[in-house]
Amino acid sequence: MCAGAFGEKEVLLPERMLQFVHLPQQMPEKRNVLRRRTDFDEIYRQFEPDEAARQASRCSQCGVPFCLIHCPLHNNIPDWLKLAAEGRLEDAYEISSATNNFPEICGRICPQDRLCEGNCVLEKGHGAVTIGAVERFITDTAFERGWVKPIRPHRELALSVGIVGAGPAGLAAAEELRRQGYAVDVYDRYDRVGGLLIYGIPNFKLEKEVVLRRWRLLEESGVRFHLNTTLGKDISLETLRQRHAAVLIATGVYKPRELGGPGVGLEGIVPALDYLIASNRKGLGDPVPAFESGLLNAAGKQVVVIGGGDTAMDCVRTAVRQGATSVKCLYRRDRANMPGSMREVKNAEEEGVEFVWLAAPEAFFGEGSVRAVRAVRMRLGMPDASGRQSVHPEEGGHFMVPADLVIKALGFDPEPLPVLWNEPQLEVTRHGMVKINHRTFMTSLPGVFAAGDIVRGASLVVWAIRDGRDAAAQIHSYIQQSAQLAEAAD
Ligand code: FAD
Ligand code: SF4
Ligand code: SF4
After folding, report:
1. Which ligand is nearest to the CA of 115?
2. Between 20 and 30 A from 343 (CA), which of 22, 105, 243, 262?
């Protein structure tokens, strides 16, 4: 080991890479489970500088880095790991932020076990390099040290781009276009910036200050936000097309998939996002009548969450923190076939959530309000066309689960946008997603582009960032080409 400086702090740095032979994998410490069940603070502590350096030094600097290949942003992971191991954090930040607009957010909430870390060559045998935690450490440190600066474009262009949706796709595109010198106007129906980062994902995974500081930075960079502005209600797509040289649609998918069965309309059966938005707003200090009345509050209740994705995991863990008396997650497949991150399942189990695998709801009982769910045991069959194992109900396999709050977390679909926005020319796929040319990101409307969940369906933050960046590059070349054509015609 050799001594190195992290700001004022002197730390011991590893002398070389490939330390996986000597150093075991170490994730950032998790907060005590009894403590974290009672608050909404993030559960992972930040690495200390020497821990981050040591963990980064485990990387074997692969010639063909599978971690990089499986990161949707193709982050230069081996390079910034080496720099972090050497204590050159400002350089590591420069490299990391060159390919990712929000590395500290991805470091916290990417399902790394399915992406970079799940594909690290050390995963089998030694334990993957803790890539996400180092990525988060680098950018959190950059913010603390003042290395993250507002954008000052080399030249200001007279043209503007309108972006609808202030989620990760819209924000990544806004940053990239502002860097090119465009005036950027972002419109969102919410009163805060961040999309699902602010109102969907709970604080214990992503503290809201992390999102709010990005909002402040974008404003300081000159991005103009028009909040409480709903496309199709307060403003039309036609107006935006006239106002801006190009428009990007990044509005995400929000229509909850519905449950069927008798009693499904009983009070106390609520959509997951309504429940999570109420909880996040409460945490941000907003008045939330449906929370105060108890409708969207799990305190003192027997909670049943239906679904097996990230949204379901966020609901069960929110219910624990709100003081539910019991929290059960009903999922019709088994643990191995669950779409949610295994890391999140483990965290939920530690916090006291009971998973009822191979169980599907059939009917809901209660007088006015729900009191119980009748579920049926399922068995797995042969894989279907998509490769996933089919599920079939077991004959006579019924059982009752007591419940005063049932949260439906079955996924999301897009709303019928051409109708809502009165834009019949806007083409959508048979699933209702906005149709784009995947090379140009342009929709069927000239000069109108689309990115993020509204194109790919409910996905991941890291993919939304990737799409936002790619769409911004295509918007830039579209505007340049249009200007050249106009010049040639003069
Ligand atoms: P969004 O984040 O949905 O943003 C869309 C924005 O458009 C919103 O601000 C919305 O208000 C605005 N908008 C919509 N319609 C209009 C309109 N008509 N006019 C004006 N504005 C409009 N991904 C991960 O990688 N890790 C996780 O841990 C994770 N957890 C999740 C937990 C939950 C509960 C949910 C629901 C999703 C989670 N995801 C997670 C998925 C991730 O949040 C999304 O894939 C990502 O946010 C999509 O980004 P986006 O910019 O396309 O859309
Ligand atoms: Fe891994 Fe996500 Fe970071 Fe890529 S962006 S390196 S997938 S944590
Ligand atoms: Fe390092 Fe693992 Fe990536 Fe190889 S796959 S470069 S060991 S992080």
Report:
1. 2
2. 22
Residue 152 located in a structural domain: no
Q: Are residues 317 and 377 in the same domain?
A: yes
DSSP annotation of 27: P
Q: Residue 1: is its pLDDT beyond 60?
A: no
pLDDT computed for residue 5 by the predictor: 47
**Alpha carbon of 60 to ligand 2 centroid (Å):** 18
What mean pLDDT comes out for the span 323-339?
Answer: 93
459/476 same-domain check: yes
Atom of ligand 2 minimally distant from the CA of 77 = 6
pLDDT digits (tens, 9 = 90+) for 434-443: 999 999 999 9
Q: Which two tokens mark 6?
A: 């992290």
Evaluate whether residue 11 is within a structural domain: no
Burial class (CB in 10 A: 0-12, 13-18, 19+), 218: buried
Asked if residue 192 and residue 304 are part of one domain, the reply reads no
Q: Which residues line ligand 2 (CB under 6 A)?
A: 71, 73, 75, 77, 100, 106-107, 110, 112, 115-116, 131-132, 135, 462
Q: Is 120 in the pocket of ligand 3 (CB under 6 A)?
A: yes
Angle of the 77-85 helix axis to the 131-145 helix axis, nearest 10: 60
Tens of pLDDT, residues 42-69? 999 989 998 999 999 999 999 999 999 9
> Cβ(17) to ligand 3 under 6 A?
no
Residue type, 415: E
- pLDDT per residue as tens digits for the range 110-119: 999 999 999 9
Domain with 28 in it: what CATH number? Answer: 1.10.1060.10
DSSP labels, 281-334? HHHTT---HHHHTSTT--TT-EEEEE--SHHHHHHHHHHHHHT-SEEEEE-SS-
Provide the domain count of the chain. Answer: 3
Q: Residue 121 — very low, low, confident or very high, per pLDDT cuts 50/70/90?
A: very high
Q: Ligand 1: which atom is nearest the Cα of residue 234?
A: 19
CA–centroid distance, 30 to ligand 2, in Å, is: 20
Residue tagged 């015609």 (tokens): 489
Q: How far apart are CA 117 and CA 205, in angstroms?
A: 18
CB atoms within 10 A of CB 112: 25
pTM above threshold 0.70: yes
Q: 258 CA to middle of ligand 3, Å? A: 42
Whether 311 is in the pocket of ligand 1, judged by its Cβ within 6 Å, is: yes
User: Domain of 58?
Assistant: 19-145
CATH number at residue 218: 3.50.50.60
